[in-house]
Amino acid sequence: MSMYIRQNHFTLRIVTAIYFLPVSYNQTTQRFVQQRTNLVSFGVGILLSFTFFYHDIFIQNVFFANLPPFAFAIVLLELLLYTIVPFCVVLNNLFYRKRWTDLLNVLFADDSVLDTTNVTMSGAYFLYISVLSILLVTLELCNLFALETLSHKMLTTTFVLRYTGMIHFLYLFHMCVSMVGLRMEQLKMLFHHKQTEDEFEYFLGLFMAKFERYVMLIEQINRCFSLPIVTMLALGMVELAYLVFECFYTYDAGSPDTEMYNGFTDRAFSQFWQSMYCHFLVLTVSSCERTRKMVEETALCTRHFDDYRLQNTRAAKQIQKFLLKNLHQKKKFSACGFFDIDNTVIYMVFSSIVTYLVILIQFKQLETDLTQAGDGYNVTSNVSTVQP
Known about the structure:
By secondary structure, the protein is mainly α. It has one domain. Helices cover 75% and strands 2% of the residues. The chain has 13 helices and 2 strands, in the order H-H-E-E-H-H-H-H-H-H-H-H-H-H-H. A hairpin with a 4-residue loop joins strand 1 and strand 2 (31-33). The longest helix is centred in the middle third of the chain and has 45 residues, at 150-194. This is Gustatory receptor.
């Protein structure tokens, strides 16, 4: 699997440098190890997290001064989530650093038996993350030239930096999940090839041992990634909810909210940026759903075993026990036990967006009604004072 490490070395360097990955890949031993440089990376990750916190709360508070209450609440919630995510990832990785080492060394180790199937991982997502990284760099350069004030440049730069770290962390999650799916696909193909051979009973024991070995890694992946993924999906859900709300407000009012944006360019950039958070779902849901199905298909492929020579033998009984165990104890990718990461997450996110949209509309309408009521009272008071 060193081929996949070399292919994605850029992502591994990014996440390792900021302690979004608490271990380093040793080219000599071709294993993931904990080194002293990882302590430096931990310091960098904590320092960046505190820097972002100080920047968001104390330096950028100038943006809060003239905001109405509704806009202030939106910006505050967004900044709080942005501040929490780096701390959450770094501290989570510090706590689970030994699990990270064991997980990656098993996932990305060469397997002389399974690698003979010549089944490899598609490079589509590698191209996807490469294009997305280029887009982020281009977006940042455009912002630096287009924005006039230093405070606006700093704000967008910190957002882009954090988004880049999150997207590469989620791509690492995608790689780990996809590796489990790849091993299942290799096992399935190997089972079909070995089914008619004389040494099938020996291979069956090997098949079950490797199946259990890689399926057990799903629990390890859940422990290492769950908490950061929950916070990132929460941030993505909030951003997408704001995007839907702004589109609805523009449609309902006939014009965009002038209190939040300084012209068309600012609004277009903001909405484009908010739409970028759909990539969080692309990198998490698709790989988990595909791997979950592959695990089930690999377990069920033994059901079609029909060699009459081994009927009522030890091998047939092993298959029955194997099927009973894996049909009743299905392994799923989970986010801290709050929900399973599969296609149902998409429905959950959209239903949550609709819920938050209704809440945002109600608060916006309440703010508008209170503002109009206040203006009406002031006008009445002034008129009654002037008139005799």
